[in-house]
Write a structure and sequence with these properties.
Strand content: 15-25%
Order of helices and strands: HEHEHEEHEHEHEEEHEHHH
Oligomer: single chain
CATH class of the largest domain: Alpha Beta
Number of helices: 10
Strand order of the largest sheet: 7-6-5-8-9-10
Largest sheet: 6 strands, parallel
Structural class: alpha/beta
């Protein structure tokens, strides 16, 4: 059973400490703005979360330790499999270095992209994760992009909030996307987003973000010990997809 909680960033450490004292609360699912802040509260973390320094799930183990894991990037690369987009060997650009963007960048590195560029309006947000990706995958061509120009990339990901409102500017110029490239806009709301509409008007392959959430559901369930349910959802995610797809 999931119970939503609205927690101010400054209150997160106290909330985690007190909530997990309850014997019927075994863990937490995290969303913005808490994915990065939760990392510093953990005793252990999975490898992807450690490189990204962000998590979207934390569980209390039998010994009382708090362990975290990051699933956004796993869900993203699994969604690429479903879309028929091969990340291995691709030149990838991720626009937006928040928790989801960093998670996607790390998982793309793990899946063997040829090159990886990370862009954010605040370049300093990219520098730390780029350094950690280089340390984990020393042969990968990875760096901080100086602009969000999608030209020259095979896979372009919008992980910024631009597009939540129709009045937002596009996160990048859809006219600059290379022929044959694929675009993924991970925004869950306002579907199809202005970026998806602009790409499809040009005939560019463009995909929505809710599939990323659907594909990570089995990993969440397994992390919290629901292995049979995780296997069932992995085999047939139709019920989860029906819930998340826009109507």
């Amino acid at each position: 059973m999931l119970v939503p909680a609205t927690v101010a960033p400054a209150d997160l450490p106290g909330f985690v400490r007190h909530a997990l004292r309850a014997h019927n609360i075994d863990g937490l699912w995290l969303t913005i703005p808490h994915k990065s802040a939760m990392f510093s509260l953990l005793d252990r973390c999975d490898p992807l979360g450690t490189v990204a320094q962000a998590v979207n799930a934390a569980r209390r183990n039998a010994d009382g330790s708090l362990e975290g894991a990051l699933f956004d990037g796993l869900g993203f690369v699994k969604s690429l499999d479903g879309f028929g987009v091969e990340p291995r060997g691709a030149r990838a650009l991720v626009v937006g270095a928040g928790g989801a963007g960093v998670a996607i960048a790390v998982s793309l590195a793990e899946r063997g992209v040829r090159s990886l560029a990370l862009y954010d309006l605040d370049p300093a947000r990219c520098c730390g994760v780029v350094a950690r990706i280089r340390a984990a995958w020393p042969t990968l061509d990875v760096g901080v992009a100086t602009s969000a120009d999608p030209a020259g990339h095979d896979l372009v990901v919008n992980a910024s909030p631009l597009g939540l409102k129709d009045s937002d500017p596009l996160p990048f110029d859809a006219a600059r996307v290379d022929a044959g490239a694929a675009v993924v806009d991970i925004l869950m709301k306002n579907q199809p987003t202005p970026l998806l509409r602009a790409c499809k008007a040009r005939g560019v392959r463009a995909f929505p973000g809710y599939e990323m959430l659907i594909r990570q559901a089995p990993d969440y369930l397994a992390f919290f010990g629901f292995h049979e349910l995780a296997s069932a959802v992995q085999e047939d995610p139709s019920e989860v997809r029906e819930f998340f797809q826009p109507r």
